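= Tokenised fold =
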Amino acid sequence: MDKRLDLLNREEFVENVIKIVNQLSDIKRGCCFAIEGGWGVGKTFVIEEIEEQLKVIQSEETNSDKYFVFHYNCWQHDYYEEPAVAIISAMLASIREDEVLVNGEAERIIKAGYEFVGEELKKIAGLYIENKIGINLISWAEDIKNNKEINQKAENEFDEMFNFSQTIEKVRKKLQEIAEERTIVLFVDELDRCIPQYAIKVLERLHHIFYGLDNVVVVMAIDRKQLEHSVEEMFGARKDESSIDIERYLKKFIDFSMVLDNGTINESYREKYKIYFDNFVIENKQDAEEIMSILSKLFITIDIRRQEKLIEKANMVHSLVCKEKMDISVLVFEVVYEVLKIWKFGDLKYVAVINDGGYPDISKRIGDKMDILISFVEHAYSNIQFYGYQNTVKGVNNNLYGKVFWYFANIFYDEQVPYREYNECMHGVKEELEVAKKYCEFCEMVK
């Protein structure tokens, strides 16, 4: 994983998927399994990493590539009315993009197989043979993308002239011949971005084309909740015996799933978002360790796309309100502020006193995320005693946690700052407090 930054420690997950594919390949078993995760958790990153690693694996028997790896982006190809055409076309496009096609003893079978598939598509949509692959995909794709009439005509000819089931069976036979030489691995991405009707049609076509083929592995990136919603949209929720059993229906297409969570960030995070981190000064090793601990606990609650948007916004706003380098505690404050907004925390004046308890509405809104916040507060308070909020005895540590909660107390607790009687240790970050205030004020203006 050296080409792109792995921000969320996905290496182990990627390795486990590759182990499964290798095992299936060794016994030449066909299979369709899913990488399952919500929108934005990084499914595309993971499958692209798996693809790149599979492409360079060599067969011990032939000393050549062990896999034919294909990528089918459902959403990018949804201008094809018939997904079967889109699936095969995407496979052909994947080959066309590779500098090295096929060679050795496998060349004749593989080339013949793909030329056959190309001829079928040529009959369907007016294609012509070109170079080794035999398909001018670019011009055809552009014509279909820009001309619905051609698209509809292609679908009609597909059904009327060649009989759908017979054509699919011919394609299956040729794919099986190819799979006798190398394991075919097809990655299916962006299914959850398609409209429900098309998503279900894609599932059906994948099943028609690949189910039961030996040495063919289909790996689908899915959002199960979205997919279940698509099934409900198409067939209705299970309310009585006549309604479809969604789980049983999906098992028809998916043998098993591997669940991808939000991941945990690592030091690569600072490298990717260097432009943001460079606005701040990390004065000691303890702060460096604490910031990664804090961000890890916060970001495990939100997906990678939201994380990216959050950092982009924080960097933009911070750059507008401050030109000088600030203590790293300001970065942590800005991130905590943004995450609390995503959590729908509510009135931020309660952040500084959250461990006093008695806030059931907040607990109900943010659930077990409350434990994360309370763990931060525990690091922020010390045993130094003073009289503050409601005459309770409190102290604030001169560490990263203490500074962040001191900012929250001074910015949002207008009635009475909990730490107002004890802030000598915070004299060094008064400028940081002003920057934190300006950050919040600007964010209020750009809602």
User: Anything to note?
Assistant: The CA atoms of residues 56 and 304 lie 28 Å apart. The first helix runs from residue 11 to 26. Residues 99-109, 121-141, 384-393, 418-422 have pLDDT under 50 and may be disordered. The chain has two domains: 11-259, 268-445.
